[in-house]
Automatic annotation (TrEMBL):
InterPro entries: MFS, MFS_dom, MFS_trans_sf, MFS_TsgA-like. It is a multi-pass membrane protein. This is MFS transporter. Signal peptide: none annotated. GO terms for cellular component: plasma membrane. Pfam families: MFS_1. PANTHER family: L-FUCOSE-PROTON SYMPORTER, PROTEIN TSGA. It comes from the Bacteria. It comes from Sphingomonas parva. The chain crosses the membrane at residues 12-30, 50-71, 78-96, 102-124, 145-166, 189-206, 239-265, 305-323, 330-349, 355-376, 388-407, 413-434. Keywords: Cell membrane, Membrane, Transmembrane, Transmembrane helix.
């Protein structure tokens, strides 16, 4: 009987880890999608970046209600509901692709992200709980690794399906055939994603007793005090507000760079007229040269995978460094380097700037978990209120990308990186301020959320 239960736990953990992979994969597909809709619907950079806004605004709206939902229902019901909401988002994307309506694309992305937000609230503690308590940190780290793998693979498949024949440079036109192929690619991608998500929902339905028995007890603080009271508590803490602002800036900068990256690399001032990147085996293998001189939008879209892959590698390196360097100081170093890289790209440009821009992901790697834990250690609000507020602040991914899009539409893709540079400079100031504050909590306390 015990062996059967252990096998069931293992199967449940594998499925939960699949959820981590799925939301990482779906989130990073926004990057090639932004470039695709710009060409398909003939949009400005600002209008195309509304795709990122529609997705990430869900975090600002849904995070606290998701915590309240989890406090009222068992983990399995919350996860199944989140998965069904994600299926509804995918189906809306199918309708949008078939009707060729950009407004429906935005609606589909918002619904999809709402499901992902609820999923993250429920799945993080569940991944740690499904098995021997001694290995809870190992399980959550392993699940996060698969989330990073999803963010690496998403741009590759998205660029392959969405960007064939799509060109957005001034003077170029998207042919009807390329437009139809891109819409068909969007239809195909979200059709198969909806099928995978539906299968996961079915598994959780049949495994709901096992999952609920293994799930950690959820505090009823949100249910008892209400969302408004939790927000008021978070606003009463200076460090909760500072941490929320930091998360807002970090996510906004990371998402803005990722969603602009394909357009940036494809521009003539970077790789658009150069074959230099094909001289590097890793880049050449990822992009798959089409034989035409220069880097096409589709090839550039595939290269974006390295931006997210850098974050995956950086988490491994950062974990080792955090054992030797104080978290706040390491955050200050990483944010300063990221700011310097953005400024290099903005003011020097050239083929080398493409390599520098892709490398920013390496330094983004530790920012979210370190900001999260630094804030939890210093906040005078409860952990529930602080964590909920920090998750809500991920809405920065909805606010800053349109700003970067507006700037790029006016002064070009390279100079637009001044905006994320400013975000990283402010994050560096946050890290320096946090380093001066003494706290009683352990500096290596684990983060309660992932991004």
């Amino acid at each position: 009987m015990e062996k059967t239960q252990t096998g069931g736990m293992r199967a449940a953990f594998i499925t939960v880890t699949t959820l981590f992979f799925a939301w990482g994969f779906i989130t990073s597909m926004i990057d090639p999608l932004v470039a695709a809709v710009k060409g398909i619907f003939d949009l400005t950079d600002l209008q195309a970046q509304l795709s990122a806004s529609a997705f990430f605004i869900a975090y600002g709206i849904v995070s606290f209600p998701a915590a309240a939902l989890l406090s009222r229902f068992r983990s399995s019901k919350t996860i199944i509901g989140a998965l069904l909401l994600m299926v509804a988002g995918c189906l809306t994307m199918l309708v949008a692709a078939n009707l060729s309506v950009y407004t429906l694309v935005l609606a589909g992305l918002f619904i999809l992200a709402s499901g992902i937000t609820i999923l993250q609230v429920a799945a993080n503690p569940l991944a740690a709980a499904l098995g021997d308590p001694r290995y809870s940190h190992l399980r959550l780290t392993l699940s996060q690794a698969f989330n990073s793998l999803g963010t690496f693979l998403g741009p590759l498949l998205g660029a392959h399906l969405f960007l064939a024949g799509i060109e957005v440079k001034e003077g170029s036109a998207v042919t009807e055939a390329a437009r139809s192929n891109a819409l068909a690619g969007i239809d195909s991608a979200y059709f198969w994603i909806s099928g995978l998500i539906a299968a996961l929902a079915l598994f959780f339905f049949f495994s709901r007793r096992l999952v609920d028995n293994a799930a950690p007890a959820v505090s009823d603080a949100v249910a008892r005090r209400g969302v408004g009271a939790m927000l008021a508590e978070a606003f009463s803490s200076k460090w909760a507000l500072l941490g929320g602002a930091a998360i807002f800036l970090y996510v906004g900068a990371e998402v803005a760079i990722g969603t602009q990256m394909a357009l940036f690399l494809n521009s003539d001032g970077i790789w658009g007229q150069s074959d230099g990147p094909f001289g590097f085996p890793i880049l050449s293998g990822l992009m798959g040269s089409d034989g035409v001189p220069g880097v096409s939008l589709q090839e550039a879209g595939k290269a974006v995978a390295l931006y997210w892959g850098g974050a995956m590698v950086g988490r491994l390196i950062g974990s080792a460094l955090l054992a030797r360097v104080r978290a706040a100081r390491l955050l200050a170093i990483f944010t300063a380097i990221a700011a310097a890289m953005c400024l290099y790209v903005a003011f020097l440009g050239g083929v080398e700037a493409g390599y520098v821009a892709l490398s920013i992901g390496l330094f983004n790697s530790i920012m979210f978990p370190v900001i999260f834990t630094l804030t939890l250690e210093r906040s005078t609000a409860s952990e529930e209120a602080t964590s909920g507020f920090l998750c809500t602040a991920i809405v920065g991914g909805a606010a800053i990308p349109p700003l970067v899009g507006a700037v790029s539409g006016s002064v070009g893709y390279t100079l637009a990186l001044v905006v994320p540079a400013a975000c990283y400079i402010l994050l560096c100031l946050f890290a320096l301020a946090a380093d001066r504050v003494k706290v009683a909590a352990s500096a290596d306390a684990p983060a309660r959320a992932t991004h």
